[in-house]
């Protein structure tokens, strides 16, 4: 279905562009408060309306996209950076103590309710974007470790790997030169899914006050601020929520589209 | 079967021991001494020291860890630093909200997902299927706390059918259930979307099996074969997801409890974290981990009972 790929790609590109644009230009200054203009409904001057401090919601969403994308992207990076080598090592030593140890550690991390631990980590290390990244990133590690181990295991039985072993290549070299390129598609698709889960997790953490701190705008905290005003000015709550939904929807469609394009047989974990 | 069960039981015990150690160590590195926090900044050092001794905070780490674990095994979760009440009692009060909420949401999720998944699988590739898939895409993308706010806006503020938050207790079970309805719907939405997808794809996998072809050859219509032979066989992956979802719901309720001001385990954790009531944090997190690991253990056992092949492989 190329429709998924196009729609998902367009939505994702839209948010990436908005985030990048916000570095050089936003319709209004997100730190300037204009109490006289507070809680205005969407209009030509303020497309998405204004919040309780009179700040332009469109500008806040643009800058907030930066926070969401940065947190989720780095968290995926942590998951891939640590998880893929672990998974490849486990597959190369299949059945050995290293494999067993890595997989049992994975089971353990999976057993923790991720949200509870993320809350615990941010509560102990202090709230903020960096600690939100760590909290979300830790739970990406077993996802990538398990995925790359499973995919690598089936490759290790193939003849071209056997040929590489006969040629005298070491296991780490085979993993890097032959296994990794062959599982890259799978990793890209899973990365897109984890990216979207990261956006949701970041929104959840900043909604409860454990994500990026003021004055840095974040979608989750915009929603938390809006909660008490939802009766008075529904748009204050609706706009940032829509931004989250469209961004996550875009990434999920992109992931599905990429999977269909790259290899329809790929099995992606959605946990 | 017995050997398999025993092996799983050993793994369960090891996981729990390791989990308790991790939780203890994570909470240990938390900055802020509970005793000085409780007494305030003007407290005299000897008062703080006395309180530390009373709370057992002056003991070596290893000893405190063993005391904590040993107590939990006997059902004693320690005493809250701030409320001076047994943690087990506080947890028992809060779980009367969190557990029914999770079960309510799980029920809703199953009630929505089963018909939707079967409907979509039966109409594979047609408009009805595409509609269900689009709805699940949306369901997965919507943050449940935002959906909760929209529910409040519509059903509490505009229509005034439900209250916007709070919990009246179980004195009147109907009122209690009513107060949990919006939170349960918000919590169930993403889970229902995921479960619908699993149900649909699991059914579609089954429909390619030989026994379905045999059933069709016997003269059953596509729909009859789907209902009589497909649905039952598609249940195995669906049950796994339901098992997993229960723990997600219990933990996911944390944020939803914040939205609706429900006095559940989630709010207890938040209060305890801000008050540095570490023993409460440790014990509640451990309890949630225990719930997740036990549900996984029971799912594994249920599988092995149904499918003997699983007893030999890991």
TrEMBL record, chain A:
It comes from the Bacteria. It is found in: Cell membrane. One of its GO terms (cellular component) is plasma membrane. InterPro entries: BP-dependent_transpt_permease, MetI-like, MetI-like_sf. Pfam families: BPD_transp_1. Keywords: Cell membrane, Membrane, Transmembrane, Transmembrane helix, Transport. Gene3D superfamilies: MetI-like (1.10.3720.10). One of its GO terms (biological process) is transmembrane transport. It is a multi-pass membrane protein. Residues 65-255 form the ABC transmembrane type-1 domain. PROSITE patterns: ABC_TM1. PANTHER family: OLIGOPEPTIDE TRANSPORT SYSTEM PERMEASE PROTEIN APPC, PEPTIDE ABC TRANSPORTER PERMEASE PROTEIN. This is Peptide/nickel transport system permease protein. It comes from Salipiger thiooxidans.
TrEMBL record, chain B:
GO terms for molecular function: dipeptide transmembrane transporter activity. The chain crosses the membrane at residues 101-122, 134-157, 177-195, 234-256, 284-306. It is a multi-pass membrane protein. InterPro entries: BPD_transp_1_N, MetI-like, MetI-like_sf. Its main location: membrane. It holds the Pfam family BPD_transp_1. One of its GO terms (cellular component) is plasma membrane. It is found in: Cell membrane. Residues 95-299 form the ABC transmembrane type-1 domain. Keywords: Cell membrane, Membrane, Transmembrane, Transmembrane helix, Transport. Gene3D superfamilies: MetI-like (1.10.3720.10). SUPFAM superfamilies: MetI-like (SSF161098). Belongs to the binding-protein-dependent transport system permease family. PANTHER family: DIPEPTIDE TRANSPORT SYSTEM PERMEASE PROTEIN DPPB-RELATED. This is Peptide/nickel transport system permease protein. It comes from Salipiger thiooxidans.
């Amino acid at each position: 279905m190329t429709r998924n790929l196009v729609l998902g790609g367009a939505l994702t590109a839209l948010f990436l562009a908005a985030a990048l644009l916000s570095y050089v230009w936003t319709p209004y200054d997100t730190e300037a408060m204009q109490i006289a203009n507070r809680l205005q409904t969407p209009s030509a001057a303020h497309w998405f309306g204004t919040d309780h401090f009179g700040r332009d919601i469109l500008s806040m969403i643009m800058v907030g996209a930066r926070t969401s994308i940065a947190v989720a992207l780095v968290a995926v990076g942590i998951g891939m950076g640590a998880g893929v080598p672990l998974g490849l090592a486990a597959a190369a030593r299949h059945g050995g103590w290293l494999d067993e140890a890595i997989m049992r550690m994975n089971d353990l991390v999976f057993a923790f309710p991720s949200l509870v631990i993320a809350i615990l980590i941010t509560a102990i290390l202090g709230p903020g974007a960096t600690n939100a990244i760590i909290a979300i990133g830790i739970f990406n590690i077993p996802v990538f470790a398990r995925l790359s181990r499973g995919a690598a295991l089936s490759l290790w039985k193939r003849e071209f790997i056997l040929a590489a072993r006969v040629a005298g290549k070491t296991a780490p070299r085979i993993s890097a030169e032959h296994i990794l390129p062959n599982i890259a598609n799978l990793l890209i698709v899973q990365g897109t899914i984890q990216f979207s889960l990261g956006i949701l997790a970041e929104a959840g953490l900043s909604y409860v006050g454990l994500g990026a701190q003021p004055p840095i705008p974040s979608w989750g905290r915009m929603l938390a601020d809006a909660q008490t005003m939802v009766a008075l000015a529904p748009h204050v709550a609706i706009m940032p929520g829509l931004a989250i939904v469209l961004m996550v929807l875009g990434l999920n469609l992109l992931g599905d589209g990429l999977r269909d394009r790259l290899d329809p047989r790929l099995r992606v974990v959605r946990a | 079967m017995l050997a398999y069960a025993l092996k799983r039981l050993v793994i369960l015990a090891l996981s729990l021991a390791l989990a308790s150690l991790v939780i203890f160590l994570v909470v240990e590195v938390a900055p802020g001494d509970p005793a000085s926090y409780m007494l305030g900044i003007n407290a005299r050092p000897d008062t703080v020291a006395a309180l530390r001794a009373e709370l057992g905070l002056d003991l070596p780490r290893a000893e405190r860890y063993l005391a904590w674990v040993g107590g939990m095994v006997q059902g004693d979760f320690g005493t809250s630093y701030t409320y001076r009440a047994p943690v087990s009692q506080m947890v028992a009060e809060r779980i009367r909200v969190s557990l029914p909420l999770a079960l309510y949401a799980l029920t809703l999720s199953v009630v929505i997902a089963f018909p939707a998944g079967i409907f979509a699988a039966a109409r594979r590739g047609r408009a009805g299927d595409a509609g269900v898939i689009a709805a699940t895409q949306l369901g997965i993308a919507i943050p449940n706390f935002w959906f909760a706010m929209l529910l409040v806006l519509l059903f509490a503020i505009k229509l005034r059918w439900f209250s916007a938050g709070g919990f009246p207790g179980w004195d009147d079970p109907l009122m209690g259930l009513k107060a949990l309805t919006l939170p349960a719907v918000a919590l169930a939405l993403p889970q229902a979307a995921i479960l619908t997808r699993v149900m649909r794809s699991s059914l579609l996998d089954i429909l390619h099996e030989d026994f379905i072809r045999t059933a069709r050859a016997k003269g059953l219509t596509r729909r009859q074969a789907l209902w009589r032979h497909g649905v039952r066989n598609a249940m195995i992956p669906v049950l796994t997801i339901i098992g997993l979802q229960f723990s997600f719901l219990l933990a996911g309720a944390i944020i939803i409890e914040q939205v609706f001001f429900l006095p559940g385990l989630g709010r207890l954790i938040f209060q305890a974290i801000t008050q540095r009531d570490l023993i409460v944090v440790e014990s509640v997190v451990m309890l949630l981990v225990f719930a997740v690991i036990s549900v996984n253990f029971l799912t594994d056992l249920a599988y092995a009972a149904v499918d003997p092949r699983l007893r030999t492989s890991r």
